[in-house]
């Protein structure tokens, strides 16, 4: 069974994204609340549907839930743009896309604190999920809103979706 590499090293950052240290995935996800940067890419098709990935059951955070199309950690020594392109290629095979920066914010759960760097893009083909994911598909706005707060999506996705694209937007 696959599992996350708990020894992977992430930068520790302040709320502006400045690197102030480094720590392992295990340390960042053990309740320490060490702030570490991540990237999210919201992938839309020409009809405005949003592609979501299903997190595999072996993930250490939110297994089995639907989540942002691309989401991943920034590695120590890597910048946000490089991490975004690496994660998009690794998770969905996306190579040639134009990201639009949406917002940066701190997300906190009971186990971790992340500095989330959100982007969006539009594509005209079906992404090919890697074995890092448990598949994915495009969702209409109506489908997403109908499934909010039912345990279908990760809490981070729900919060981010509503703040960026929520009801009435």
Task: Give the structure's gist in a few sentences.
With 169 residues, the chain is of the alpha+beta class.
What this model shows, in words?
The protein is an alpha+beta fold. It has 4 helices and 9 strands; from the N terminus they run ββαββββαβββαα. The protein has helices spanning 25-28, 80-92, 141-147, 155-165, and strands spanning 9-13, 19-24, 35-44, 50-54, 66-68, 70-73, 100-108, 113-122, 136-139. The strands form 2 sheets. Strands 3, 4, 5, 6, 7, 8 and 9 form a 7-stranded mixed beta sheet that branches. Strands 1-2 form a two-stranded antiparallel sheet. A hairpin with a 5-residue loop joins β1 and β2. It is globular, with a radius of gyration of 15 Å. The model has no long low-confidence stretch (mean pLDDT 93).
Characteristic terms for this protein:
single chain; 169 residues; alpha+beta; 7-stranded mixed beta sheet
Write the layout of secondary structure elements.
Elements: E1 9-13, E2 19-24, H1 25-28, E3 35-44, E4 50-54, E5 66-68, E6 70-73, H2 80-92, E7 100-108, E8 113-122, E9 136-139, H3 141-147, H4 155-165
Parallel strand pairs: 3-8
Antiparallel strand pairs: 1-2, 3-4, 3-6, 4-5, 4-9, 7-8
- Helix content estimate: 10-25%
Shape by Cα distribution: globular
Low-confidence parts: none
Derived from helix and strand composition plus strand pairing, the structural class reads: alpha+beta
Distance between the termini: 41 Å
Give the integer mean of the pLDDT values: 93
Largest sheet: 7 strands, mixed
Order of SSEs: EEHEEEEHEEEHH
> How many DSSP helices?
4
For the secondary structure, the number of strands is 9
Radius of gyration over alpha carbons?
A: 15 Å
State which percent range the strand residues make up. 25-35%
């Amino acid at each position: 069974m696959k599992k996350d590499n708990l020894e992977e090293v992430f930068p520790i950052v302040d709320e502006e994204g400045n690197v102030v240290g480094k720590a392992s995935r295990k340390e960042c996800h053990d309740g320490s609340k060490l702030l570490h940067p991540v990237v999210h890419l919201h992938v839309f098709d020409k009809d405005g549907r949003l592609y979501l990935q299903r997190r595999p059951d072996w993930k250490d955070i939110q297994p089995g839930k639907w989540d942002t199309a691309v989401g991943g950690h920034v590695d120590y020594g890597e910048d946000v743009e490089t991490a975004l392109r690496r994660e998009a290629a690794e998770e969905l095979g996306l190579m040639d896309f134009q990201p639009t920066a949406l917002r940066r914010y701190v997300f906190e759960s009971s186990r971790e604190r992340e500095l989330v760097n959100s982007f969006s893009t539009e594509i005209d083909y079906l992404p090919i999920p890697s074995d890092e994911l448990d598949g994915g598909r495009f969702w209409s706005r109506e489908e997403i809103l109908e499934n909010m707060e039912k345990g279908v999506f990760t809490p981070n996705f729900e919060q981010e979706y509503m703040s960026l694209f929520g009801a009435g937007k």
